Structure formats: C-alpha cells, structure tokens
Amino acid sequence: MTAQEIFKLINENPAFYLTTVEGEQPRVRGILLYRADENGFIFHTASTKDVYSQIKKNPKAEMCFSCHGVQIRVTGVLEQVYDDKLREEIFAHPSRKFLQAWVENGIDDLLQIFVMKNCTAVTWTMETNFVAKEPVKLC
C-alpha cells in the first residue's frame, strides 16, 4: 500500500486505538482522529485525561486503525500543537459538534491537540497474514 492509499483509508475511517505507556504498562484507548496527511496525524484530548499525562511523559506511541478488513498500525512520536487557528478549526468542524458544550461551559482550555510525526505504517490483512511487514514512511 502506498502512503496516499493509507491516508485515504485512515481519513475515511477516523476511529483508532492509541497505545501509550504508563511506567512499564501499555495503555490503549479509542480516539477519534481529526485528520492525517504528510504533515502528521492530528487528534485531540483533554488535559484532565490520563492519556494526556502519559503522552507528556513518553511521546512515543502507536495508532491502530481498522479499515474494512485492513489493519493499519502507525508508529511515531507525538508532539503537542499550540496553534490557535487549528484550535478554532477543530471547535468549528461539523464532526466535532460534541465540543460545543466545552465552549458553552467555558472549559475549552482543556482541549489539547497532538500531532504524530516521524510516522511509519505497516498494514495487515488476512491475505497478508504471514507476509513480512514492510514499513511505509508517512510523515
């Protein structure tokens, strides 16, 4: 699979599982991707969540997407993003209507944005189950 094919599948299927580490214990949870392209994989969380603290302590992470029979695992390093324009874009995006309650209740400062960079991906399907994984450089 090419990088562009991977980006297309992921953007069409934005729910993913993020794995971080707390001490020596892996932690995994479902997250909703904002977007993915050659500049990185953008998502957000709240500063009150455990995942936020885990990322701040160890920014290495892995994302796992399930896209119509294709599993895509993306490995990279998470960086916090401080971009007011992107922040406003996220709050205004139709897929993020659930965030309007944050704005209305004055807790929008809890929103923390991250981008995964230095990414590589491996794909898996039942047909390629026993084929050696070939990492694809994404960002």
Descriptive labels:
alpha+beta, 46% strand, 139 residues, 7 strands, Pnp Oxidase, Chain A, 4 helices
Describe this structure in words.
There is one protein chain. This protein has 139 residues and is of the alpha+beta class. The protein has one domain (3-137): Pnp Oxidase, Chain A, CATH 2.30.110.10. Helix content is 23%, strand content 46%. It has four helices and seven strands; from the N terminus they run H-E-E-E-H-E-E-H-H-E-E. It has helices at residues 3-12, 50-57, 84-92, 100-104, and strands spanning 15-22, 25-37, 40-46, 60-67, 70-81, 111-124, 136-137. The chain has a six-stranded antiparallel beta barrel with strand order 1-2-3-6-5-4. A hairpin with a 2-residue loop joins strand 4 and strand 5. The longest helix has 10 residues, at 3-12. The radius of gyration is 15 Å and the shape is globular. The two termini are 15 Å apart. The mean pLDDT is 96.
Overall structural domain count: 1
CATH fold description: Pnp Oxidase, Chain A
The share of residues in extended strands comes to over 45%
Which percent range fits the helix content?
A: 10-25%
Structure summary:
The protein has helices at 3-12, 50-57, 84-92, 100-104; strands at 15-22, 25-37, 40-46, 60-67, 70-81, 111-124, 136-137.
How does the SSE layout of this entry go?
Blueprint (H helix, E strand, L loop, with lengths): L2 H10 L2 E8 L2 E13 L2 E7 L3 H8 L2 E8 L2 E12 L2 H9 L7 H5 L6 E14 L11 E2 L2
Antiparallel strand pairs: 1-2, 1-4, 2-3, 3-6, 4-5, 5-6, 6-7
